[in-house]
Amino acid sequence: MKPLVLVAAAVLVDVDGRVLIAKRPHGKAMAGLWEFPGGKVEPNETPEECLIRELDEELGIKVTHACLAPFVFTSHGYDSFHLLMPVWLCRRWAGFVSAREHEAIAWVRPDKLSDYPMPPADAPVVAWLRDFL
Questions:
Q1: Which single residue of 20, 48, 91, 127 has CA 20 to 30 Å from 56?
Q2: pLDDT tens across 76-116, in order?
Q3: What is the mean pLDDT of the chain?
Q4: Would the pLDDT of 1 be above 90?
Q5: pTM of the model
Q6: What residue numbers bound the domain in which 59 lies?
Q7: Which CATH number do you get for residue 77?
């Protein structure tokens, strides 16, 4: 049986309805693919706490629990593990978004997200965003 990995992700939505995606850097698994920001939930950490920490580390922004709205989740079996990824929508944060750990970031309209190659766990979120936003 494959280990279960819990990863929390956020869909940041700006005032123009665009969504932030980030390009995985060289040297990491799935380098060059675009993903929604977030990361692995650490022991004794809630998914929301993980997301608040990861958004600060990866993008340099401050987010509070109140700014995170549960949205959807994805579940995907990779070769060596199974990923479960709850996803939150976030429309409010403090600070300016910058790529601290990613190769690049992009603000993209939901109907254009399919133009960006994504990891299998992130890809299903695109259809939900097109319908929701």
A1: 127
A2: 999 999 999 999 999 999 999 999 999 999 999 999 999 99
A3: 96
A4: no
A5: 0.95
A6: 4-132
A7: 3.90.79.10
Q: What is the 3-state secondary structure (H, E, C) of the chain?
A: CCCEEEEEEEEEECCCCCEEEEECCCCCCCCCCEECCEEECCCCCCHHHHHHHHHHHHHCCECCHHHEEEEEEEEEECCCCEEEEEEEEECCCECCCCCCCCCEEEEECHHHHHHCCCCCCCHHHHHHHHHHC
Q: How far from 60 is each of 55, 91, 99, 101, 124, CA to CA, in Å?
A: 7, 15, 8, 10, 26
For residues 3-16, give the mean pLDDT.
97
C-alpha–C-alpha distance, residues 26 and 68, integer Å: 29
Which residues sit opposite 10 in a β-bridge?
88
Count of the separate structural domains present in the chain: 1
The Cα 74–Cα 31 span in angstroms is 20
Handedness of CA 132, 87, 24, 84 (dihedral sign): negative
